[in-house]
From TrEMBL:
Alphabetical list of PROSITE patterns matching this protein: G6P_DEHYDROGENASE
Domain (Glucose-6-phosphate dehydrogenase NAD-binding) ranges: 34-216
GO molecular function per UniProt: 6-phosphogluconolactonase activity; glucose 1-dehydrogenase [NAD(P)+] activity; glucose-6-phosphate dehydrogenase activity; NADP binding
GO cellular component: endoplasmic reticulum
InterPro entries for this protein: 6-phosphogluconolactonase_DevB, G6P_DH, G6P_DH_AS, G6P_DH_C, G6P_DH_NAD-bd, Glc/Gal-6P_isomerase, NAD(P)-bd_dom_sf, NagB/RpiA_transferase-like
Name of the gene: H6PD
Protein's UniProt name: GDH/6PGL endoplasmic bifunctional protein isoform X2
Ranges of residues in domain Glucose-6-phosphate dehydrogenase C-terminal: 222-514
Length: 797
């Protein structure tokens, strides 16, 4: 059985008729399944049972099977382990015991253990399969290699399979891989490239066991079968928020060597929860039984995920974790881990369907219960006049309206799909699903179970059994493609980088957590609802908490310096800008603010966008301090950053927004197009005395500011208000306000953040007025005020 692509399917349809007569003479086909790591934990717990399940499903449908358990363990030891595992296999409850025993005996007979270590072992395995197939008068139709091994072993194994264990012509190869698939985007790319040199994409099956969970696998069919009801509801107008949750009670003891390197985000959010998120958020293909269409639509869900910021996350760590790491990894007593074991993440999706709807992803170890689910909570715009006792579950618009894909565990104890009765009566596949029996007293997500239409699978099946069956049947949409994997890492890696030094909030674990980990959404950010009770969980000695510090006031280059932890610093700067705006509008009726681009001001833009309701935006003019010579819609454009992080969230009249004219007559920064003169004229016309109320600058690690660079005289003095300059880094061409224009401002704020700025901050603190070497040293407002805003990383190192 080959997995057909679309064209192959068409071809196959044509060929089937022609070949069917010939096929009659064909020998019966055999599939060999080689389980690597067959004595390991996962194999013992799930994979052998999954293989047995496949055998039960497929035996009698014309295929022959052979199962080869392999590992590095010696043959004798391995055989012993495997014999025990095979003995413990179970049949579905509804199978007659006699029949089960018979099939189990057959399965045991068809399964063997062998050591698989050297290239020679692989070659011998291949030869043995060929000989056995021939001996039994069969035809080999395919080989499945299931790699239940640590990822460092992948490449060697892949090389061996490719060079000496591929089946002969006409038979297919499928290689199944278990996570982790890399540690970040770069390592995932590397691993993908290495594997890609041995296998074709269609030969690889990357497992995410959440995709094998019955309820997760039901999300798309549910959306498909209920299109009529959901078409109008599955969008930002009706959905209040979406929660994707995996709570665990277990800790990481026994696997800290893995966990310490990965942490909760890499362990379960980057994969399991992201997969589930995309199934909810993606556009539904017309034909959901086409794996190609499903995969393609799923992939399209990634580019519209809004980039995550540090404030998109709250992190925690159960209190005993560091001790476990110290014990298991022989770390000194002073060692404190920063690895998060709990995370709440806020995801936004920038498309018309989901814009503005918060998707909350949450997972943690040592929480009060074990449960996973996706909850889609709908908005409630109704106002019910009659008292609650008259509300009827199926009719009242005032009861919460939600759909829950209950993946497993929790109080319900089983997988289920729940739909509030006041939403609609869902259609579910009639076969395989049944209505959940009433359980008086059971309340789920604020409602009694009786207020839901609730369905659960007739026969619960573990995820691995499902996935093994899908591998056999080429259901590629139940697996993670290379593109999908890399898109997910591309989404998560910047956040992981920015959180690398974040101190997670410690929590005692279990019910004792109380409300300590509750978090809330405000202004597009997540934050813990409760302040940190320090007596309960003191922070690690080596990493002081922001609350340990006060905002520091001092002088830097003879001008006022405000220094604090980043969060506080940004809040302070945003407050100062708002105060300046209010003052200017009160006095002159308008406020002229010139903003820099780059990464440092992003947090400021977000703060202004979300936390400053009294900001006089309607009377504010926004100017650019500098711009890259790229089209304004280019993600590299400073204007684009301003647009994404500020403008689209506030109400600045569009005629008050003044992007730099870098793109004129379909050319970028051509001298002849006189963009600099045009901007200078616009400034002169609108800004009294060409004196901005506030100019926000940054400081580059080389001492540049705006787009005025060292060793490049342009814009450092003279009459020109706006200049074209050249940056040492790409894109090289820039447009910038000149130093004389900047120095005409009433107030100049210089924002300097991050450890990378430490050295230049030290240096610039000592140098005099040398703008040619360090343009930032030339910033000295003629009659205005200069204030430095530096975070502790930049200021204290
Ligand atoms: C695994 C993670 O992928 O998923 C574990 O590595 C986690 O840390 C597990 O416990 C959860 O899976 P399930 O099926 O128990 O929800």
């Amino acid at each position: 059985m080959k997995c057909p692509g679309i064209w192959k399917m068409l071809m196959a349809a044509v060929c089937v008729a022609l070949l069917s007569s010939l096929q009659a003479q064909d020998l019966p086909g055999q599939v060999s399944i080689i389980l690597l790591g067959a004595t390991g934990d996962l194999a013992r717990k799930y994979l052998w049972q999954g293989l047995f399940h496949l055998y039960l499903e497929e035996v009698g449908k014309g295929h022959h099977f052979r199962f080869h358990g392999t590992a590095l363990t010696s043959t004798e030891q391995g055989q012993e382990v495997i014999a025990k595992v095979l003995e413990s296999l179970s049949c579905p409850r509804d199978m007659a015991p006699g029949h089960c025993a018979e099939l189990k005996a057959q399965f045991q007979q068809l399964s063997e253990y062998r050591q698989l270590k050297t290239p020679k072992d692989y070659l011998a395995l291949s030869k043995d399969i060929e000989a056995q197939v021939e001996h039994e008068g069969l035809r080999e139709i395919g080989r499945i290699f299931y790699l239940s091994v640590p990822p460092f072993a992948y490449v060697d194994i892949a090389r061996n399979i490719n060079s000496s264990c591929r089946p002969g012509p006409g038979a297919w190869l499928r290689v199944v891989l278990e996570k982790p698939f890399g540690h970040d985007l770069h390592s995932a790319q590397q691993l993908a490239a290495e594997l890609g040199s041995f296998f074709r994409e269609e030969e690889m099956y990357r497992v995410d066991h959440y995709l094998g969970k019955q309820v997760v696998a039901q999300i798309l069919p549910f959306r498909d079968q209920n299109r009529a009801a959901l078409d109008g509801l599955w969008n930002r107008h009706h959905v209040e928020r979406v929660e994707v949750v995996m709570k665990e009670t277990l800790d990481a003891e026994g696997r800290t060597s893995f966990y310490e390197e990965y942490g909760v985000i890499r362990d379960v959010l980057q994969n399991h929860l992201t997969e589930v998120l995309t199934l909810v958020a993606m556009e539904l293909p017309v034909n959901i039984s086409s794996p190609e269409a499903v995969l393609q639509h799923k992939l399209q869900a990634f580019p519209v995920l809004r980039g995550l910021q540090r404030h998109s996350a709250v992190l925690g760590q159960y209190q005993a974790y560091s001790g476990q790491v110290r014990r298991e990894l022989q770390k000194p007593d002073s060692f404190h881990s920063l690895t998060p074991t709990f995370a709440g993440i806020l995801v936004h999706i920038d498309n018309l369907r989901w814009e503005g709807v918060p998707f909350i992803l949450m997972s943690g170890k040592v929480l009060d219960e074990r449960v996973s689910y996706v909850r889609i909570l709908f908005k409630n715009q109704a106002f019910c006049v009659q008292s609650e006792k008259h509300w009827v579950a199926a009719q009242s618009r005032c009861l919460p309206r939600q759909i829950i894909f209950h993946i497993g565990h929790g109080e319900l104890g089983s997988p289920a799909v729940l739909v509030s009765r006041n939403l609609f009566r869902p259609a579910l596949p009639s076969a395989g699903w049944k209505e959940v029996e009433g359980r008086p007293g059971l309340r789920l997500f604020g409602l009694p179970l009786s207020d839901y239409y609730a369905y659960s699978p007739v026969r619960e099946q573990d995820a691995y059994s499902q996935l093994i069956s899908h591998i056999f049947h080429c259901r590629k949409d139940s697996f993670v493609t290379t593109e999908n994997l890399l898109a997910s890492w591309a989404f998560w890696t910047p956040l992981l980088d920015s959180l690398a030094h974040e101190v997670p909030r410690l929590y005692p674990g279990g019910a004792e957590n109380g409300q300590l980990l509750d978090f809330e959404l405000s202004g597009g950010h997540l934050s813990f609802s409760q302040p940190l009770p320090e007596q309960l969980v003191p922070g690690p000695d080596s990493a002081p908490l922001p609350s340990d510090f006060q905002v520091l006031r001092a002088k830097y280059r003879e001008s006022p310096l405000i220094s604090a932890w980043p969060e506080e610093l940004i809040a302070r700067l945003a407050g100062d800008i708002e105060a300046a705006a209010v003052r200017a509008v009160r006095r002159f009726g308008e406020f002229h603010l010139a903003l820099s681009g780059g990464s440092s001001p992003v947090a400021l833009f977000q703060q202004l966008a979300t936390g400053h309701y009294s900001f006089p935006w309607a009377h504010t003019h926004l100017w650019l301090v500098d711009e890259r010579c790229v089209p304004l819609w280019d993600p590299e454009s400073n204007f684009q950053g301003l647009q994404t992080h500020l403008l689209q969230h506030v109400r600045v009249p569009h005629y008050n927004v003044h992007p730099m004219p870098v793109h004129r007559r379909q050319r970028l920064c051509a001298e002849e197009d006189q963009g600099t003169q045009a901007y200078a004229e616009e400034i002169s016309a609108l800004v009294t005395n060409s004196s901005f109320d506030l100019v926000l600058l940054g400081m580059g690690a080389d001492g540049h500011t705006a787009s005025l660079f060292p060793q490049s005289p342009t814009g450092l003095d003279g009459e020109q208000l706006v200049v074209l300059t050249t940056s040492p880094s790409s894109p090289h061409r820039r447009m910038s306000l000149s130093l004389p224009l900047i120095n005409r401002a009433r107030k100049v704020a210089v924002l300097v953040m991050g450890r990378m700025k430490r050295e230049i901050a030290m240096l610039v603190s000592r140098v005099g007025h040398e703008p040619k070497k360090w343009p930032i040293s030339g910033v000295l407002p003629d009659s205005g005020q200069l204030v430095w805003y530096m975070d502790y990383d930049a200021f204290l190192g």
